Amino acid sequence: MKPPWTRSRIAIEDLSVDFATPAGIAHVVRNFSMEAESGRIVGIVGESGSGKSTLGLAILGLLAANGRTRSGALIIGDQRYDLTRTDVTAKLRGGRVAMIFQDPLSSLNPVFSIRSHLYEILRRLPSAESAGSWPIVAETALASVGIDHPRQRLDQYPHELSGGMRQRVAIAMALLARPQLLIADEPTTALDVTIEAQVMKEIRKLRDTIGCTILFITHSLGLVAQHCDDIAVLYAGEKIEHGRVSTVAVVPGHPYTSALLACEVSIDQQRGPAARENRFRVIPGELPDPHHRPNGCIFKSRCEFAFEPCADIIPPDYPGSGEPGHKARCHLRALG
Amino acid sequence: MIGWLKGLIREVWRDRSGQIGLILVSLILLMAVAGPIIAADPNKINVAERFLAPSLVHPLGTDNLGRDLFARTAEGTRSALVISLAVVGASLLAGSIFGVLAGLLGGIIDRGLLVIFDIISAYPPVILALAIVALYGTGYWNLLFVVTILFIPQFARVARAQTLALRNQTFIDAERLLGLPLHHLVWRHFIPNVIGPLIILASMNIPVVITVEAGLSFLGLGVQPPAASLGTLIKDGYIYLNQSWWPTIGSAMTLALATLGSTLFGEALRDAADPKLKGRVRP
Amino acid sequence: MSVAVEITDAVVRFGELPAVNGVTFAVPEGSCFGVVGESGSGKTTLMRAILGLQRLTTGAIAVSNLDKNAHVRQRARLIQAIFQDPASSLSPRRSIRQSLAEVGELLDEPNDSLANRISVMLRRLGLSSSVIDKYPYQLSGGQARRVALLRALLVKPRILIADEPTAGLDVSIQGDMLNLLQELRRDQNLTLIVVSHNLAVVRLVADYAAVMFRGKLVEQGLAENVFDAPSTNYMRQLLQAWPRLHAHASLS
What we know:
The structure holds 3 protein chains of 3 kinds. Chain A is α/β, with parallel strands linked by helices. Chain A is 31% helix and 23% strand. In chain A, the strands form 2 sheets. An 8-stranded mixed beta sheet of chain A has the order 6-7-8-3-9-10-12-11, with helices on both faces. In chain A, strands 2-1-4-5 form a 4-stranded antiparallel beta sheet. The mean pLDDT of chain A is 91. A 6-stranded mixed beta sheet of chain C has the order 5-6-7-3-8-9, sandwiched between helices. In chain C, 45% of the residues are buried. At the A-C interface, helix 8, helix 9 and helix 11 of A face helix 6, helix 7, helix 8 and helix 9 of C.
């Protein structure tokens, strides 16, 4: 299956999202910008409060009632989409942008069969495959994501499938929809690790087949290191580092990124002889209040390297290392 | 518990309809409590003074027998409140015990109780009341007993649902791990968590009982003369409507305001207790 | 070496389905024992059986020198647990003070002695004394976690079971909980049983481990053997599938 469009760059420009809470306005995502070549898998990494999920939901206009996209644009090739407008985001959904969610049970409609879900996609496609070919197309799609007995599965309902299979169905739906941008929000967090590995393989295959750019939102650095091409690190609503995974994982440009890498417990880490002596890294301190952004660098209160400029000057995108495209928002990088 | 209730009342006050409900309920309570103290004797007959218009001496006028309407309305309100609180209280107590038992014990006991609840819920209240009267005569206590039974299933079902939800909560495991006896578990952990929704339900049922009691008394099946009930007052006034509308006005208005006030209050209480309603964020 | 928990041919059947299907192992006193498995492996059911919250269909679980027919309270004083979602493990309508007072009842301890121990533990766990008068819903996730741990430790148990101690915790703060558990092991010679699906963490904290799959034990022994030199294909596959930081995908 060849993609019908020419490979095009994806860019997000100045995306900011606010939420109205009893305590005031919380600025959950602040001025997020990034760009990626077509067909790249970009890992969006962050912990709680980083705004990573909000990012994905804002692009598709799926924010909760008290959320508002204050600014932001999505650029696909030479087309520009204003993300503050709900009519624009509504048109993006299921068209040029698709999404895979963490809990496939709630993203698949329990009263519709798998067949109905897949046909729904085919029905909305501009390039009309004739309805007569739908059964074959649907069956092929299921088979291509590794679902066994695809013909029988078509007539099953979501609750009859395991979590891993439901995610595969979601991927099959994306395969049929052929979006230019796929947002995967923690798609494997609820799955066992062996199933996770299989689903990640299917996601990579999807990218290889239809050439879409994938925003892979996760808290797991290990998954990003293993499956993504690029990485963007979010902290408290801001992007603090961006670059190729191979570069950032080895020469992180931001203290938060290096601390995060150090905290991640690796399966092949060195074990001390006595288990009870093993200690674990922590990043001390707390997230800043999303209602009142402190001055200067967002990470300064928890950074062991903070110095004078960090207090009041927001770091711009400095070069993170020699690698072009590697950016880090840390004043240390200005020192060369 | 008290803190929770106080917090709820504060929430109710924030909402416009809750404010109205709270004010009306307070006024009704005031009338019921203060009435007998400041008003005249509700049973004092003075045929010379029948159908008087409202005045300082008789704030709501007098009825066909010259009895002070304010005093009679106050007495009727008091009896309406006492009956509704008693009925709701008793059915809440019985309902929560049956509901918690059904939830905790499960199996055949649970299913048996559910069937009984279904049977009770299927009866239309007024028809049942007529049947009771036909069989046992117009006893005040018979009626109260029947109305109580009619309200038990609602409370029992809510209590049962809460119990089932609680059984699987982690904190029940954690409490069992402390090795304390079963009755501790039930009284300290199940009941307090079950009571909340039941109190809300009770407050929403009070206006219903008030109306049911007034209706049955209007039909002559409830409170018997010379005792005053809002229902009997309305009936008495209704007969003499072409001679004077004072007897009807006072009691009908009071019944309407009591029902409206307790309904608004009950609904506002329910909304205040539900963290998901109206997008309110739980503190 | 004495044994803290001894499990012999434990079977737990729910209707037709065996959730735990003949498990045998022993937890040495003072050690950290990891029980790992994926969802549906039966590790949670086994954990509840060890705690006495779930009856065994057949088989036996012996805890320390506890008699088979010992009173629930004796068991409660010996073995405690911290659960996966700490906020929901505290009774919602009771203040922290009330929840902690129940420990005093279990231990038959006078109020002032209990209060003293509580303030010492609050300091130890980095909690301010103001949490005592709060209700669970008023605590942050981290605070609730530490309060649940405080209550479990207040009982002075010899054995502590930690059910998914790092689940839901950001990577940058899970170390806090783990370091705390390690400290407790060193100071009090506590026997720690960690039930988790997080292989990487259990590998570092456990002395011994047992791997469960569909109710059965597929691997057990010293942690370094189970994790670094597994004997079953299942375990090898599991380890192989675990995401690794430094084996990134090739660029497209």
